[in-house]
Amino acid sequence: MDSDRLDEVDQRLLQLLQLDGRAPFSRLARDLDVSERTVARRYRRLRAMGLRIVGQPVPDRLGLVRWLLRLRCTPDAAGAIADALARRPDTSWVTLASGGTELYCALNTRTADERNALLLQKLPRTPHVLTVSAHCMMRIFVGATSTWHATRFDAPAPTGSSPSVEPLPLDPTDRVLFAVLARDGRATLAELGTETGRSPSSVQRHLDRLRDEGALGFSVDFDPELLGYRMTTQLWLNVVPAHLRTVGEALATHPEIAFAAAVTGTSNLVASGVFRTPADLYDYLDRRIGPLPGIQNIETAPTLREVKRLVHVLP
């Protein structure tokens, strides 16, 4: 489907939903200067094209540790291994890259036992897995609960990971809300009340608490290819420690970047970028990455297939 089928109203609607995924149609209509009926019709059309609004937990606010796994596999098995990882409930996204022999997988863990079961037992014993490296995400500069789309240019500046505080305790109602909002972030209060057995006013109080405490975020998931962006690329950077924060915060302001985090390992900063063409990727590396201080080297790995993305993970 050609990107020109999305007009200015469609793209502005995507932008407003990115700012608040649960914004009511009445407010969206006022901001767009169109009727509420027009907003509802445009929203339904975008949904039919694959738009999802997803409620997601903020990992560090809930006492979860986020990991990025980098696996190299034999070419004949990478796809099957990626699909198997995607079926696991503890993985949040899985992508296949680098000629079909390398894949990336993000997961959240609460305990060392959860981490070790996968990293020390399951994966090393998987046939056709050649190497496994695990990178702990120390600080997420952008992308903790968001995804990229081409109308992100006017979004507020990201603030990075939450400061170190005690994990927010969750009750059974909170956990049901996370599960339902992972399927539909715009589920109505009545629908959420039916699922939780709570009144709409009680559900609203729970939602307000989770959002005010920084534990729940809403993401807009829309295929970048429908907006003409056909080259998603993983960037692995080795940055001098003194400049790690500076570079990470700079990447978080770039509209091309969907995700950026400081991680453990030889490459201490990883990012996901979305571009229209290889030439745009080159220009980005030349004009935006090149002038940043302290970058010693950079590795790029174009994504071949997104196997799993924007999935609720709450152990």
UniProtKB/TrEMBL annotation:
Kindly give the Gene3D superfamilies that the UniProt entry links to this protein: 3.30.70.920, Winged helix-like DNA-binding domain superfamily/Winged helix DNA-binding domain (1.10.10.10)
* Keywords, ordered alphabetically: DNA-binding, Transcription, Transcription regulation
Q: Which residues form the HTH asnC-type domain?
A: 6-50, 170-230
- The leader peptide range reads none
- SMART domains listed in its UniProt record: HTH_ASNC
Q: Keyword Chloroplast: yes or no?
A: no
Q: What domain of life does the native source organism fall in? A: Bacteria
InterPro entries per record: ArsR-like_HTH, AsnC-type_HTH_dom, Dimeric_a/b-barrel, Tscrpt_reg_AsnC-like, Tscrpt_reg_AsnC/Lrp_C, WH-like_DNA-bd_sf, WH_DNA-bd_sf
Q: Does Signal appear among the keywords?
A: no
Protein name (Swiss-Prot/TrEMBL): Lrp/AsnC family transcriptional regulator
